[in-house]
TrEMBL record:
It is a single-pass membrane protein. This is Potassium-transporting ATPase KdpC subunit. It is found in: Cell membrane. It comes from Pseudomonas saxonica. Part of the high-affinity ATP-driven potassium transport (or Kdp) system, which catalyzes the hydrolysis of ATP coupled with the electrogenic transport of potassium into the cytoplasm. This subunit acts as a catalytic chaperone that increases the ATP-binding affinity of the ATP-hydrolyzing subunit KdpB by the formation of a transient KdpB/KdpC/ATP ternary complex. The chain crosses the membrane at residues 12-35.
Length: 183
């Protein structure tokens, strides 16, 4: 019995050390060397050095003077990040989208873009398509007392082209630039 138990326990301890300690430390070390900014959360710091957020996680912006991100199923809390799991046939989803559409609607702009009404898979996607940003442009410019062309130029500067997929705009980075630009 001891001849079977001893190798089994030794193998269990060895595999625990490899998969629970050595491998995670190696991956963390490689990530810190190769991609230090991303490995530390892609944090965004203000002029005072305080962390304002992460470029990878959406934040809620309220008020007419800010560009709004897509809705979050988890109220922008990273602990509860997940999709709403509401089926297209679920009346609760239809009610939430209808309420979001009424809240986001801008006069004379046509229908609200779908990206402003639907959540992402994680509920924390910080990006929007440029069309969803442009839909909000007139509201933000009017609220800040800026010419639309000035705000449009700022939006153009923040359009990112990922390696795969359509162009996107990071709402947090755009709003930070907007805050630095206007009172």
């Amino acid at each position: 019995m001891t001849s079977l138990l001893r190798p089994a326990l030794s193998l269990m301890l060895l595999m625990t050390a490899i998969t629970g300690v050595i491998y995670p430390l190696a991956v963390t070390g490689i990530a810190q060397l190769a991609f230090p900014e991303q490995a530390n959360g892609s944090l965004i710091h203000g002029l005072d050095g305080q962390v304002q957020g992460s470029a990878l996680i959406a934040q809620d912006f309220n008020g007419e003077s800010w560009f709004h991100p897509r809705p979050s199923a988890g109220a922008f809390a990273t602990v509860a990040s997940a999709a709403s799991n509401l089926a297209p046939s679920n009346p609760a989803l239809a009610l939430r989208i209808k309420a979001s559409a009424a809240e986001q609607a801008v006069a004379d702009q046509g229908p609200v873009p779908l990206a402003l009404l639907t959540t992402s898979g994680s509920g924390l996607d910080p990006h929007l398509p440029p069309a969803a940003i442009r839909y909000q442009l007139a509201r933000v410019a009017a609220s800040r007392g800026l010419p639309e062309q000035t705000v449009e130029q700022l939006v153009k500067q923040h359009i990112e082209q990922p390696l795969v997929g359509p162009p996107v705009v990071n709402v947090l980075l755009l709003n930070r630039a907007l805050a630095q630009m206007a009172p």
